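> call design_seq(struct)
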């Protein structure tokens, strides 16, 4: 399941920033142009796609800094759903 979620997370990121290169799971999103506005858009897309809600205390940079950290957040939300 993790790889499917990770693949979807990476596709959402690629769609938001419109890059054509492969996105590594440990890639720091800030280094590829994801700013605060794009982060908010990504969070909204994630909530809609996976039908989860991120609480205020979830919205920390460390939770949304890389595709793998985002994947872990989504997985945690799906388990507690």
């Amino acid at each position: 399941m993790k790889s499917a979620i990770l693949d979807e997370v990476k596709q959402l990121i690629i769609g938001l920033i419109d890059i054509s290169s492969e996105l590594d799971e440990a890639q720091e999103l800030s280094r590829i142009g994801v700013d605060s506005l794009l982060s908010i858009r990504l969070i909204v897309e994630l909530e809609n796609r996976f039908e989860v809600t991120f609480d205020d205390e979830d919205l920390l940079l460390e939770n949304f800094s890389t595709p793998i950290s985002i994947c872990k957040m989504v997985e945690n939300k799906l388990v507690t759903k």
